[in-house]
Amino acid sequence: LPFRKADIEGLALGSAVLGSGGGGNPYIGSLLLRQSMETEGVDEVRIVPFDEIDDSDFLICSAGMGSPAIGIEKIPNGTEHVRAFRTLEAFLKKKATIVSPIEIGGVNSLVPLIVGARSGLPVADGDGEGRAFPELQMTTLAGFGYSASPAALGDERINGLIIDAISDRWTERLARAVTTVFGGRAYVALYPIEGADYRRAAIPGTLSLAIGIGASLIEGIKNKDAEDALVKSCGARPIFTGKLVDVKRYNTRGFAIGHAILDGFEGYAHQRLKVSFQNEYLLARILGAGKSGESDGHRTVACTPDIISIHDESTLLPITTDQLRYGMRCKIFVIPVAPKWDFEGADELVGLKAFNLEESVT
Amino acid sequence: LPFRKADIEGLALGSAVLGSGGGGNPYIGSLLLRQSMETEGVDEVRIVPFDEIDDSDFLICSAGMGSPAIGIEKIPNGTEHVRAFRTLEAFLKKKATIVSPIEIGGVNSLVPLIVGARSGLPVADGDGEGRAFPELQMTTLAGFGYSASPAALGDERINGLIIDAISDRWTERLARAVTTVFGGRAYVALYPIEGADYRRAAIPGTLSLAIGIGASLIEGIKNKDAEDALVKSCGARPIFTGKLVDVKRYNTRGFAIGHAILDGFEGYAHQRLKVSFQNEYLLARILGAGKSGESDGHRTVACTPDIISIHDESTLLPITTDQLRYGMRCKIFVIPVAPKWDFEGADELVGLKAFNLEESVT
């Protein structure tokens, strides 16, 4: 499968849908990818179908890390990701044959294509999450026992760093602290993995799925049936329509953590929805009419690991967590997460308890 | 020069004197070094005289990093330093021929001997500070233009990390953040440097100087003329005698930062001394009798980069910053720093302004 400049818009849009509001701003990723392809004179980047990934292949995942809200202010020049990638290869004394996305979401599904355009490597049609999650151990790769480290990190100043940790949670802790020192945004290469292991643990077909979702949403918007396109391309189910009346967002511990409150209209009049996020939307709850302090009437309508996607009510374009602004009129969907997440231990890795959100639903 | 178990006590004591109160608790370093020599069946570690360091030699500095107050609670097993050392060698694809102390002070002048005992490598009779300083760019090696990175860090859990930064301040920032994530204490290998460059930039003879100071202080204590031994062995000059009436100590940003207040007695009756520290003692000021808000009468009696050494008034044993306790009766000395620090730019690197203490003296 060739990936061409004409596919960028669709991938960016589809990634924003699957990204559950996170993974960084896809618009900036689109510009970086376009610029990388033009600078390198690359007309197409090869996408390797999941089943064609060979036992002899060796993959490394490439991504940006940190708060998306900072990602839109600290814009990379497009070579940082390749540098981190090469740093990890040098440390491992082993060349990768394929670049993989770590997640599908915002800028992070475009990043591997930037590395592909800059390095000549093909990109895997798969990833480690099938959506975006805020912490680097939150992958099916980790769930199936593969290590995020050795991992390489870099910044736009050309500082470089290699982590060789005893667990993915330690890799996350160390990488997060370093990301904070870098100013809130780092470029990482991680989860070095053999082809056979990747096929066992990664989620298949997610890059082409994102491109397909984006393409049908673009087509749907033209034909004025965008919602239908969304429902058909990814199984999205509408759960709320409302106006954004409050956003709390804190850039803390290297994350953008907070929540949005929406007052319903159309079929949701007199209802109020609270969407909690940590880089990604994680939990959507209807707030009941119970008196203050009482929780009667509160109910969860969508919850991690399922994807929560907030869209502009009129254009149906997705709104990432960093774009949330007072007054926006939104339509909210839940999209079922990839079935690969259906394994024992997934709840500890990416369920509510992994985000300290369990209390919110009791 | 052979270093034997019998030299440990002297080196630990002399290091505590030159360490300006920092560099970690020397008692724990002594135990670790003794254990390392016994475990490895090593009777002596060779110390290479400074002038015998050859152009063909390649040196790496070995040290512990972080708050000394935490260093006495998180005790390493003696293999962590060697692991960081080997990690850096592997990254550089180059074996060191000599281990060097980065500083003379507390545990950090003993650490290279631990690495020497564990690895069979000899230890340089020199270091990068001629005392201890709290930040890793505060060395004559950096002052003469040599880079602290690539540097390797590890913890007792066997997490490992390599930093390849664009400046020593970035190495410090990144290493400090990682040290904090590790729980306040890290084991580092840094300042990889060729023999000729080391001879140009390092401070000569400091390891044997520390052993000499320690040996004469031990002898002096036996002969009841400890103060005379101190004065003669390192040019120490008494500046205050008093009782410790207040200690403020915060473990913050990976450092132990604070100050001690002493009420004078003997020739210093009715005088009050404030000693500010950041891991190491940095500034000693007599507080004048001026009314609150006025600074009249305040005067500096000792100041970084000169060494400030606090000793028990009766035993003359040195007291490190982590050992400061209310009620201690102390005698305080200033010791001139090694003349190698007399170069342009040294003040920016290790003067009061480097510690945000300039305001304290205006």
Give a structural overview.
The structure is a homodimer of 362-residue chains. Chain A contains 11 helices and 17 strands. Chain A has helices spanning 8-18, 26-40, 68-71, 80-92, 111-119, 140-143, 168-181, 195-201, 206-222, 226-234, 346-350, and strands at residues 2-4, 44-48, 58-66, 98-101, 123-124, 126-127, 151-154, 160-164, 185-194, 203-204, 237-252, 255-264, 272-278, 280-287, 299-303, 307-312, 329-335. In chain A, a hairpin with a 7-residue loop joins strand 12 and strand 13. The interface between A and B is medium-sized, with 19 and 19 residues. Strand 8 (160-164) of chain A pairs antiparallel with strand 8 (160-164) of chain B, so a sheet runs across the interface.
| Pair with the biggest interface | A-B, 19 and 19 residues
Oligomer: homodimer
Strand content of chain A: 25-35%
- Largest sheet of chain A at a glance? 7 strands, antiparallel
Shape of chain A: globular
The H/E string of chain A reads: EHHEEHHEHEEHEEHEHEHHEEEEEEEH
Radius of gyration of chain A: 19 Å
Tally of helical segments of chain A: 11
Structural class of chain A: alpha+beta
| Helix share bin of chain A | 25-40%
The low-pLDDT segments of chain A are: none
Give the spatial strand order of the biggest sheet of chain A: 15-14-13-12-11-17-16
Mean pLDDT of chain A: 93
* Strand elements of chain A, count: 17
N-to-C terminal Cα separation of chain A, in Å? 47 Å
What are the SSEs and their pairings?
Two copies of one chain form a homodimer.
Chain A: E1 2-4, H1 8-18, H2 26-40, E2 44-48, E3 58-66, H3 68-71, H4 80-92, E4 98-101, H5 111-119, E5 123-124, E6 126-127, H6 140-143, E7 151-154, E8 160-164, H7 168-181, E9 185-194, H8 195-201, E10 203-204, H9 206-222, H10 226-234, E11 237-252, E12 255-264, E13 272-278, E14 280-287, E15 299-303, E16 307-312, E17 329-335, H11 346-350
Parallel strand pairs in A: 2-5, 3-4
Antiparallel strand pairs in A: 1-2, 3-9, 6-10, 7-8, 7-9, 11-12, 11-17, 12-13, 13-14, 14-15, 16-17
